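Human: If only I could read backbone structure tokens as easily as an amino acid sequence. Underneath my words sits a plain record pairing an amino acid chain with its backbone structure tokens. Take your time, and here it is.
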Amino acid sequence: MQGLKEQFSNYYTPKRLLLNGIIMFAATIFFIYQRPEEPLLGIGFGTIAAIYFGFFVYKKLKPAT
């Protein structure tokens, strides 16, 4: 289990988390404006973007050990 955590920790760098968050935020804006009849798409992508941004902030504020 520790190896899996370390693998994901190394894969999701702050730069990658920020880039993924920006992409998901752009997808949220796209679906809100292009498909207002399907609000769950915007809500879903917005939630994913918030998770990415949250982990980005967490990684930046976490002391390096």
In short: Helices lie at 2-11, 14-34, 39-61. The radius of gyration is 14 Å. The first helix runs from residue 2 to 11.
